What does this fold into?
Amino acid sequence: GAVVSQHPSWVICKSGTSVKIECRSLDFQATTMFWYRQFPKQSLMLMATSNEGSKATYEQGVEKDKFLINHASLTLSTLTVTSAHPEDSSFYICSAAQGAGANVLTFGAGSRLTVL
Amino acid sequence: AQTVTQSQPEMSVQEAETVTLSCTYDTSESDYYLFWYKQPPSRQMILVIRQEAYKQQNATENRFSVNFQKAAKSFSLKISDSQLGDAAMYFCATQRYGGATNKLIFGTGTLLAVQP
It folds into this structure.
């Protein structure tokens, strides 16, 4: 079945530094990937839609310059949290669909970011 | 705009018994999908069941079935013969139908405990 890999699974960084999280579709090509953020005991909040070869579409209230998304290939999307602060600490989850227009999304295992 | 409401923050069920999780939604779309996802303590999102809104027949997947009431915009999940491994957070989600792969909008989740 479709597998989505996220790396790193957890990361700790100092305030003011940048952190990159990778999302890879291992056995399929993903034209579209989605990035979600989840706070403890809360739901998944969509941050942005990442389309291969084009700019990401951000949800209202999500800072584009803070959360940089790059989808340079059909199997890789990256989320870079720039100048991270403690309030950016969260669980970040990516998902991808196999094939354009596919409606069933496969999720990565998530990345826990802690900013000190 | 699409919204999903899960009115039960927590539920509990005895092993081997049946439990129903509630979900209501609102959408302006004429065609859409509805999903139930499971998130165990590992935080990995797992697809439980999917329903196409244009289909009147309720989806079933082994011990999992839904009661889809389109007019009432209700989409409940029934888990039969509950097992300890069913303990998890359950999220209801909706997705617009058609065109490119569309984003999932999640409800707030229901934490299900299974008592031995």
Remarks:
- The two ends of chain A are 37 Å apart (CA to CA).
